[in-house]
Protein 1
Amino acid sequence: MNPANYIYLSAILFSLGAVGVLVRRNVIVVFMCVELMLNASNLAFVAFARQHGNLDGQVIAFFVMVVAAAEVVVGLAIVMTIFRTRRSASVDEANLLKY
Amino acid sequence: MTSLLSLVDTTGNTGETIVFWVCAIVAVVGALGMLLSHRAVHSALFIASTMIALAVLYVSLAAPFLGMTQIVVYTGAVMMLFLFVLMIVGVDSADSLVETIKGQRVAAILFGLAFAALLLAGIGSATFDVQGLDTANTIDGGNVQGIAHLIFGRYVLAFEVTSALLITAALGAMVLAHRERHTPRPTQRERSEERVRSGYPQNLPGPGVYALHNAVGTPALLPDGTPTDLSVPEPLRGVSAAVGVDHKDTARVVTLASGGAVGPADDEGTES
């Protein structure tokens, strides 16, 4: 199979995630789109690791997963804090960092 | 189908080709579904399917360790966290369809198409030759051993920094989710004194007390026939204040309570 197909799929998923970040208003869905973009880049890393014949790409993808997990934990905690004060999960509502 | 496979198959590995196309379709459909569904829960389920498809792709890309990690970390931990927060924030919170910036949605879709075209054109003009991971995966005795050799060898500093990051993230989440108590917790004595001082120390009336319907939202009727809001739970007060109170019947009760005589109840009238 053409090895570029994996990279094509990764590019399509990344673009869909980017459009989602720009279009969606629910902050949790925006977060999911960011996760999709991270996953797409992970796919590119793993595909490139196989093309170059070493495991460094897989290690980088592993680190990306770790950072994504940490990011989700902090991000969702921030979402909870904002929801507690503003009673809304829309990105339009959070236009002030305080209050 | 075989002609389509031979069209894209240059190495003759048919199994991988089938796995790729199945998983690619599932992944793209999942991503599109996440993008287009209005309910956040549906988006979460769609992206979970995308992540599982990606895990299968990792396994077929000779990265079984990453495939398992993808399933455990993403579908196991991250998506459960997402669903958990969704349940707290409100499952029904549908996306608002109002455009706050005029023309932003069209501009965003155009940007996405242009970005995808740019990426795909760039990839299309590149040449790929696959070396394969067979030697790299067997040199240390397996994929997991090879990755472990790299993580605890060349990337050991990044690995240690990662542990610091995880601790910081856990602490940050605890600090952010912690709610400071501004007032000291009331003791049992303070609560009982507060109750006596409120002027209504006894139990509130149950919903069925003299009411015409045995529903929680129906206000109870006092012995003189007037409805009281006290039996209705706090969130329902005002919403269903007059619902279920038949004023014809309450008038009958008031007449009876004041010693007057009333005729037999007309059953068809109370149903309205």
Note: Confidence is low (pLDDT under 50) at residues 1-10, 267-272 of chain B.
Protein 2
Amino acid sequence: MSESRVTLLALSDESCVVDKVDLRSLMLKAVRVEQRMVKGVNLEDEQRRYHILCDRIEFYGHRKLSERVGNFVELESDYLEVIKNLSKHFQEEVIEARLAADFCPRELVEQHIGRFESLANKLNLLGDGSVQRKINFYRLALKSGWNVIELHIPWSQSRNESDGSVDFDELKASFLALKVADEITDMADRSPFLGLRDQIQKVINQVSKGIPAAVSFSDLRHDVIAEVLHDFVFSSGRPMYLPVTYADGSVASPFPIHCVKSRSVEAMKVLREEPILKVGQMSARHLEMDLEMKVYFFRNQEISTGRSAAEIDKVAYEKAKELFLKMRTEGSFRIGYYQTGFQPAVVGFYRALAEELVARAKMQPTIEVIPYYFLVGSYKTGKIWC
Amino acid sequence: MITQEYILKEIDRFAEKVKKYDSEYRQKDKLPKNHELRPYRWCSRDIVFSLLMVKHERYGNYLYADLCLIANPPQYYENSGAGVAMGFLLSEAYKCGTTMEIVFGKNVEPRLENGQQKSRVPAYICDLAIDLGVSLKHVFEGHISPFEARQMYMGLAGFSKTAQEKIMKLSVGGKLTPERVCFLVMGGLWSLPEAEALILGSAHPEDVLTSASDPALRHLYLDDLLAARGAILGGVLDRKLLKKELVINGQIVESEDEENDITFDFDEELYAKIYKFGEKLELPWVEGKKVELSPDVSLAVLVRSRTSSEILEGADRDLEHLSALVSKYRGSVVGLLYPRDWEEIQTDRRLSLKRQIEAAGVYLMTSPESVAGLDKEAMRRLETGRMVRHE
């Protein structure tokens, strides 16, 4: 197998100079790139620079190791599993303390090993052989003022996985028993509204049987999404969260349905005396709307992040949650919500709105959202969310 | 019942759609959206395997095939047209983010039932399903369910039994969907032997195949990069061996679809590629020697995509593995494949290492690819994998 083992190599400042290259200078440059990567600006360029620097550090590290320069210790094969586990459980701390980096200039050794020890302790990993070896080695490096490089040694073992062999027929039976839809879609000709309703209903049925399923909102008309979601949010039934996905396979947070009770006309009477505020969904999509709108709900730059659809949905949802929370302290609002499209932003907005309506269910009505869709040359009003 | 009249009518419908597609998209330099009907013609040279018109039916979230004509050209393996068509339909269904359900429209091999025109799953596809051991339950409704699609995709991708076993284990463990692995192979990101090397030869194939690691987490990313680098170097050797060079009028001509007759295998324990040949070939990239490979002898190659400093550092281990490979494949031609970085090693050290390798009865093969080039390609594939539908 190509499975790697990791060898820790400690080098003094003097040993860090190879030919005309100073490994310490490469390490410090790479640390600066790491700090820039966290900001996410020009990420691809920074990642490329980081790879080049790491690649050079690793290359010269291997050379030093083959020449047996410096102190070194080989870790057990599970070390990468430890790093993976730490990254999974403490993603932010691991990035901040650079625990998944494969080099450590002497200035950062103390901080590195302190954080490593504390996080490993949280996962009860201090008894692990490679964790112990690493801690001891780094303590020695700290005392001696060494820089550390953690080198991957691929193809260092020839043994196979030790997960045991399983009977092929048994495995195939478990594979075929994996829950996956085996039903087919009813093909009666229907409108987009009914088509999406059916898709949602099918997903609800499958989820209730334990079959993994999710509604895909990609490529759907935004007016259809809003209208059909309205029906499911305001209809009676067992409150549940509807799984949501997009065509890129990204999975968004589920959407709450059967969770809001419509307010009576009487209850809405006071609020409806207030004027409607014209709010565009997102700036810089249809510039001709600028003259008509008082304000836009989302800034395009904040939402169109070029990430996966689920991430865009999340950004829109969080922004909308933040704005709705702020609006609670600012009085009553009747929002004429002029939709501009972009499915993940639409779903994120209505998820936040549905949750906001649930949160305000026992209060006097102070918010009403009236969707407007531009269809066949003019704006049409959608179902009201209040 | 497929009649001549039906075929001619569908070909006309296809031609009309192509004309419309040209004027609406190609001439305007536009690309259609997934939910718009698109025509596809699958051919090799002048032989047509299949004509298809498909779209993503977005409200039902399935792939809709409005036209599906399949040929079974006698020059190719049995039912090759259905294999091509179904491979495309499944990959397109995955790409569009559908549930993997495929629906054939009412014009596909239609019949009248109670005065209504109804479609069916094309007969050639039903034959293919039988060959693959998949039972289709909705043939006369014209549907292939996601459950059936999964089995057909696995069958069509052509993984070896050991690789299938590993994919099933990963799927049962919830680490990887079989559809994603099949898509990465049938979509061309990884060749089948490369994917097998990843699946069988790396500790965490699911991380590589889902492009899970963030480049900022160097340890995890490097682990994936090393696995990808090894698979790609093996793939370079596969292609070199497969490539047939025809000599026409004294000129070497590369043939597009004529390849050498080779079967591939992978030794996961030693990370070695095992080849068997149906004809005589020359072992590539051996300096100063002409080594002939013949059908009665297999070739076992230890693939090690190491930089020059890694070669020096790992030489003892490689020699140990070589010795194990020679014992395991006694009677075979055995090679050790390094990238071009081998040449960066100091001459005296290099010659001494070469002597040790040859003393073990092994041919040293140095690929024209360098680790820098392999890493660039590995990074491209990991990045492309990140854009592919995730599950």
Note: Chain B has a mean pLDDT of 94.
